[in-house]
Amino acid sequence: MADQTSSTPNFYALLIGIDCYMPNQLPDGGYYKSLGGCVRDITHVEAFLKEMWKIPENHILKLTASTTGSDPTQPSEPPELLPTYKNMVAKFQELTAIAKKDDQVYIHYSGHGGRAKTNYPNIKGANGIDEGLVPTDIGKPDGQYLRDLELGQILKEMVDKGLVVTLVLDSCHSGGSTRGDDSDIRGMDVVDTTPRPTESLVASAEELAQTWQTLTGGSTRSLSSGWLPESRDYVLLAACRPTESAYESVFNQETRERNGALTYWLLDSLRQLSSGLTYKDLHDRINAKVNTQFPQQTPMLIGEGNRIVLGSEYAKIQYTVPVLQVDLATNPNGICIETGQVAGLRKGAEFAIYPQGIREFKPENRLAVATITELGATQSWCELKPLPGKEPVKQGDQAVLTSASTNLVRKVRLLYLEEAQTENELLADKLSARKLPQEVYKLQENVFQNVNNALEVGKGWIELVPDADKDGKKEAAHYFVAINKNGEYEICDRTGTPFANMRPPVKVGEKDAAANLVKRLVHLAKYHASEALDNFDKSNPLIGKLTVEWIGKLKDYDPVDPIPPESELEPLDAADNPTITAGEWIFLRIRNDYSRELNVAVLDLGSDWSITQAYPQQEGNRFITIDPQQQEIIPFRLSLADGYEDGADIAKVFATVGSPNFRWLELPPLDQPLATKSISTKGSDPLEDLLAAINDENPKERKLNPAAYPSREWTTKQVKVNVKKA
């Protein structure tokens, strides 16, 4: 990462966020609805760039369309600051003009993405489609998309000038309805056929066509991200695949603010970065976090994945915030640090405090640990826990975010459907497009009361949240429970999409139905707690030292044979999230780039909601040991349970210097009862205590901070594979 003192004048940003979409209607009757988290995305990104990278305000160009005015159909910003097509093109051109060779350029777009009938049939064919960014004024007669050919031309001009470009697109091309009232989709599931202007403000049609053909090698569409062709000249982080959805949702339970999933986890990861982290490392973590909450969203990375994040390969940076006040005598929450809600933090975030001026951010140099108890916009008060034998914390010392806590408790909301609602009203409320049979409507009240009573049994892991508080606001929920037209319970994710493979179905009239539903919710909470577990303590020496990736597949393989050379493996359709047929073999590479040997275990988070230690499998073997600069290639043969048409498995790899037992995290399939493990804790260490806490029937702590378990260096990475029926 770039050194703050030498590279700050050479860092520029263009930030575009669109919440307010002026009245518009597409030929099919659909429209680009206004959103709720895009401008906030931009505000948080701007605060991060100013606070962490010390980017001057005059190096940040910004266009936003907010819905805070008196008329919700009109943005509150003046016309010259709105993200119209004309203004967006002008800002891109301004950015290209002011930045000089080797300068860093960061571009972030949060808003709708769209698809339209192509303006370039000679390149894409008569039935071709252009992907595009959707401006706030798309509904006006002269409204037009900023199309993929134009975006490609803009980036080419930046690269040709020698600029180091990073582009983040928190939007999607397709969309649909959601039932979860915490989420929206940034896109439309239609192709816009509205006649629109064909003249580009970026370049002539001939120049756009020539650039596009150069970028795509002459094909009409070789776009793995759906936005732009593969390139080694820039880095593109896109929110999802072309056929998927980009979600915005409520992530902060306290403020109930909405953010784009990609932007939220991007900033969360950037705050916890260590020097030397690559875009591939960053993408791995973002992908795991987003896909955990939104299985229909897979962030994409294109370009220089091995480049150091927002910098050059030789650069180095450490993120710190200053201690502003120390008042332990009169205030139990004794120190104030210069960061807060504007940086996307929340109560419970934990910081390590280091002496002023120190540059070696190692655990032994810590003075204390501080936990935010009073969250402010730009300043927050913290509870301080001094470390034995260390100097007292004083004004000017440095606070370094260790890791946001893992919240073990999952919030649950019950989704009621009103008999009087019409199909259109159901869609507008994002509850369901399906009307229920008459008898099912009448069941809801009694059935959900039974669920409410049964939730008391599992409240160590799950809590019921009310439909609305006294102010009419709804607390964010992780899971939604609804009744479907067959009179069965459905457990849905935060977008309102039912979780796959919830088998067997639980009928609302069955004996112990509510109790069985609660057991499923607890099972899911434990599964997702394990899936979300990682360690991004910036002082961790293992950051960036573990490589985990799928490298190929084979239809037939005998595990007694040697591992075949990589050149003999069949290529995968997508390296970051491949799809294979049940019964095929897929090969996982694990590489140790640390200076010491690492103990490694691989857990399989299965499509049947089980967690098993997949490697090494033998009950008595906790791990394998991989020497420094060595790798292990492991074959896996994935299958589907009877009756399953498809599924997704996650290989979660733990690497540690110590020797903990990761079998604490194992779970049976969803249709089998949970059992408390009695694994010996003789010789256990703090990391093993963390793993045991996730296994507890009633966790003693609501939140766990993985970075608070530093006695053993450890790290984890995970990769996903989709399995389809043969």
Characterization of this structure:
With 726 residues, this protein is of the alpha+beta class. It has 4 domains: 4-303, Rossmann fold (3-Layer(aba) Sandwich), CATH 3.40.50; 321-404, Beta Barrel (Thrombin, subunit H), CATH 2.40.10; 418-528, no CATH class; 540-724, no CATH class. 20% of the residues lie in helices and 25% in strands. The chain is built from 12 helices and 33 strands. Strands 2-1-3-7-9-12 form a 6-stranded mixed sheet, sandwiched between helices. A hairpin with a 7-residue loop joins strand 10 (247-250) and strand 11.
Task: List the main descriptive attributes of the protein structure presented here.
six-stranded antiparallel barrel, 12 helices, Rossmann fold, Thrombin, subunit H, globular, 726 residues, disordered N terminus
The largest sheet, given as strand count, sense and whether it forms a barrel, is: 6 strands, mixed
- CATH fold name of the largest domain, please? Rossmann fold
- CATH class category of the largest domain: Alpha Beta
Number of strands: 33
Cα gyration radius (Å):
26 Å
Helix content: 10-25%
Given as residue ranges, the uncertain stretches (5+ residues, pLDDT < 50) are: 1-9, 218-225, 419-434
The neighbouring-strand order within the major sheet is: 2-1-3-7-9-12
Q: SS-based structural class?
A: alpha+beta
Number of domains: 4
**Chain-averaged pLDDT:** 81
